[in-house]
Amino acid sequence: MAIRMDGKAMAEKLRGQIREEAAALPRRPVLAVVLVGEDPASQVYVRNKEKDCVECGIQSQGYRLPAETTEQQLLDLIGTLNESAQVDGILVQLPLPKHISEKKIIHAIRPDKDVDAFHPFNVGKIVTGEDGFLPCTPAGIMELLKEYRIDIAGKECVVVGRSNIVGKPMALLLLREHGTVTICHSKTADLRAETLRADILVSAVGKRGTITGDMVKEGAVVIDVAMNRDEQGKLCGDCLYDEAAAKASYITPVPGGVGPMTRLILMKNTLRAARAHLEK
Ligand code: GUN
């Protein structure tokens, strides 16, 4: 039976460190949190991020904009936040309403305030292995792997999902630690054949049942990034947990695995942004 990787406990432990480091700065770090529209999931995420800020001694500045907000209005707000000496980090919650180009908005955020690490400048640094902001979910997973002393070098790492937010940067961070990395996606010919080779299997698809027990190699480390709901409305991941846990050596639960670590990295990135601004 697999060891359950407790992201919640680890995030709580690290939160204390961030709070101490933030308190040692000449002023509190400031994160601008922008939400456009009323998507219920986004509202929950944003509320959680603001709660994390309070717990870490980071000041959050919330901007709730109506769904009818134009692209230009949002660009104007980002322009103001970019220029503000008071703001260290800018987070625009995705997805945005259809009439607003996410690409344009991401491009507009100043890279040194891009605590999500979505701007191509920061993505480029991940590709070349330069020091910069790391994307929250993949970086949180890397910290979990480190905490549980899971070696990556030379391991077969299979990432299921190729999103810009998780799948692609996850693959790059595993590669940076010398994993042998495969990215699978909706057109992968034989998903099971790929996942069965994985020493480290990361699933970031968003569909319950993507990973069944017969797709997990004996002793594999299974990281479940997804936040789905089952038929009863209960939170669950991509993996059928019991089946996957019966085969795995380590596994992240949903909830309480990757999610809390993702939230923590956002705080860490904001602290880092504040430090850099204060040093200027
Ligand atoms: N929507 C889903 N995940 C994320 C995230 O990590 N950052 C932002 N800004 N929006 C998201």
List keywords for this structure.
42% helix; 10 helices; binds guanine; globular; 11 strands; 280 residues; three-stranded parallel beta sheet; single chain
Characterization of this structure:
- With 280 residues, the protein is α/β, with parallel strands linked by helices.
- It is built from ten helices and eleven strands.
- Strands 1-11-8-7-5-6 form a six-stranded parallel β-sheet, with helices on both faces. Strands 3-2-4 form a three-stranded parallel β-sheet, sandwiched between helices.
- Helix 6 packs across helix 10.
- The site of guanine (GUN) has 7 residues, from strand 4.
Please provide the count of β strands.
Answer: 11
Report the sheet-strand fraction. Answer: 15-25%
Number of helices: 10
Helical content stands at 40-55%
Order of helices and strands: EHEHEHEHHHEHEHEEEEHEH
CA-to-CA gap between the ends?
51 Å
Radius of gyration: 19 Å
Overall average residue pLDDT: 97
Low-confidence stretches: none
Q: Give the overall silhouette.
A: globular
Major β-sheet annotation: 6 strands, parallel
Question: What small molecules does the structure contain?
Answer: guanine
- Helix/strand/pairing class, anyone? alpha/beta
The spatial strand order of the largest sheet comes to 1-11-8-7-5-6
